[in-house]
Amino acid sequence: MESPCVACCRLNEEKICVGCYRHMDEIVDWRRKTPEEYQQIAINIQQRKAIACSLGETVPMTEAEWKAARARNAAKSLVGGAL
User: Fold this and answer.
1) What is the pTM of this model?
2) Residue 39 neighbours by CB under 8 Å, 6+ apart
3) Who's near 80: CB < 8 A, 6+ residues apart?
4) What's the rounded mean pLDDT across residues 1-24?
5) Model pLDDT for residues 52-78, shown as the tens digit of each residue
6) Which terminus of the chain has a smaller tally of CB atoms within 10 A, N or C?
């Protein structure tokens, strides 16, 4: 499974990343997780994100938004534009 990381890494008081909604224990050794662990982590992410949205907390950018912004910045630097 591809990592849900959106390059917005910062842990809250419960050690949940405010970028991808994974707990610190879910982030560590990501590539060594079993398919069952990936499935449970995906469920945990959905639940945490739903709670954050219902509380009006800031929702981080999606991975697609992050990749698009990265591509725009790369294109700008190729043509000599400022970031």
Assistant:
1) 0.70
2) none
3) none
4) 90
5) 888 887 666 677 887 888 888 888 877
6) C
Q: What is the mean pLDDT of the chain?
A: 87
Q: Is the dihedral of CA 59, 40, 11, 13 positive or negative?
A: positive
Residue 17: phi and psi, rounded to 5, are -70, 130
Q: Give CA torsion, residues 16, 17, 22, 28, to 10 deg.
A: -100
Q: Which residues, 6+ apart, have CB-to-CB distance to 60 below 8 Å?
A: 6, 8, 18, 19, 20
